[in-house]
Amino acid sequence: MPDKKLIEELRAALERNKEEIEKNLKTFAQKDKKLKGDWDTKFPKWGEGGSGGAALESGADQVEQYGNLLPVEYNLETQLKDINLALDKIAKGTYGKCEKCGKEIDEERLKAHPAARFCLKCGENK
User: Fold this and answer.
1) CA–CA distance, 7 with 5 (Å, rounded to integer)
2) What are the two backbone dihedrals, phi and then psi, of residue 31, each rounded to the nearest 5 degrees?
3) CA distance 103 to 21
4) Which residue, among 90, 122, 89, has the nearest Cα to 103 in the 3D structure?
5) φ, ψ for residue 42 (rounded to 5)?
6) pLDDT reported for residue 55
7) Cβ-contact 90, 7 below 8 angstroms
8) What is the pLDDT of residues 12-44, one digit of tens each?
């Protein structure tokens, strides 16, 4: 298990990363009040793009942008889930162990990816 100083450094890095991801998500999504850890991309508001053909074009652009943001939302949610899991493990004293084989995750791997859930060997064989 990493030493306490390293764990504290990694915890701080995880907290900073969490704040950054949440800040990014807030620019185009909002937290789902019913489902913990879920964010919902804001759907475009209709009728704000003029009238006639301009309104249709504006609406089409908004729907396209919405569609483009959905995979970004999913990716950021997944990162946030892994960060929260790592922070929970730090709090419980189980941080740094591979979820698959139970062995210690190499410190260099944790430094490069503090939310790592698997050792390098198991991560490659997922």
Assistant:
1) 5
2) -65, 140
3) 29
4) 122
5) -70, 125
6) 60
7) yes
8) 999 999 999 999 999 988 888 888 888 888 877
